[in-house]
Amino acid sequence: MSDSNDIRRGIIQSLNNEMATVAVSKRGACDGCSEKSLCFGVGDDKSDMINAANPVKAKVGDMVEIAMPEGIFVKTAMLLYLMPVIVMIAGAFLLPMFTTIVDPDFTAITGSVIALILSVLFIKAYDKHATKSTRYTPQIKAVVTLPLGQTCAAKKN
Length: 157
What we know:
By secondary structure, the chain is an alpha+beta fold. It has two domains: about 5-70 and about 135-155, CATH 2.40.50; about 70-130. It is built from two helices and five strands; from the N terminus they run ββββααβ. α1 (about 70-100) runs antiparallel to α2 (about 105-130). It starts with 6 loop residues before the first strand and ends in a 13-residue tail after the last strand.
């Protein structure tokens, strides 16, 4: 399963050097709307903010298409949700194998807690590395122009 074709539309909210903060509609928020390909609400509970590289030099208020890096959602979900659980289970089984002095249940709980703390520290370190890398950064691919006569409610000033 690959999400290499994950193109999302959004409105640029702010610029910071080569990066743009873009409001994009949440998944499923616009499913019932006939105009979902053109517009969405910005600043409500139906939008997310995404930081994206801005190689096309789009401006604040522009509607843009953002390409998400291939596999980013699956990799992120596995890192954030599966890894801590797997590491905790491993810690619960491994620490009691190396210590026989203390109660095995206490050692298993201690191993789980230590493993969880280590996995959170690893995720934080990995996050610092990933934010510096362009490999995981969404890219603005194009500025979208609406058909003549159409306006987007999100672009109102």
